[in-house]
Amino acid sequence: MLKLAQYLGEADLLIRALRASRRKITLFLFTVSNLVVIMGSLMYVIEGADNGFTSIPRSIYWAIITLTTVGYGDIVPETNLGQAMASVIMIIGYSIIAVPTGIVTSEITYASRYSKGGVCQNCSFEGHDIDAKFCKRCGARL
């Protein structure tokens, strides 16, 4: 258990990257939530109660399950238009998987680029380039 202490620096890097990408991920989740509500409501109108889409919340549940590529199969569209829309939602779901990964990865790359440059002993500034020999802020040797 004590050997995990050596990974605290990497954990701090991950936390900083998640904090830096918080606004982007929030916007992404807001967009996905709106997409699910719209798609679920459309499926309720297209399929109706006869095909298992008994209410808009149940249709939104189906849209979430389909978009996240889980697909329980408890509700299945029966009409051709509903199946076409389900196909579009599935393709959107696969394309959405990579978006948060890319956001966090870019922030990790940015954070790791500037975290390895060292800390100035004189002024405690941390944002140095990797190959820096002198502090950006006070000019002291690193």
Mean pLDDT across residues = 87
Envelope shape: elongated
Q: Oligomerization state of this entry? A: single chain
Reported for the largest beta sheet, the result is:
none
Number of strands: 0
Report the uncertain regions: none
Q: How many H/I helices?
A: 5
Helix and strand content put the structural class at mainly alpha
Distance between the termini: 33 Å
C-alpha Rg (nearest Å): 24 Å
What percentage of amino acids are in beta strands? under 5%
What pattern of helices and strands is seen along the backbone? HHHHH
Proportion of helical residues: 55-70%
Polypeptide structure, described:
The chain has 142 residues and is mainly α. It has 5 helices and no strands. The chain has helices spanning 8-20, 22-47, 56-67, 80-96, 98-115. It is elongated, with a radius of gyration of 24 Å. The model has no long low-confidence stretch (mean pLDDT 87).
Question: How is the topology of this model organized?
Answer:
Blueprint: H1 8-20, H2 22-47, H3 56-67, H4 80-96, H5 98-115
Helix pairs in contact: 1-5, 2-3, 2-4
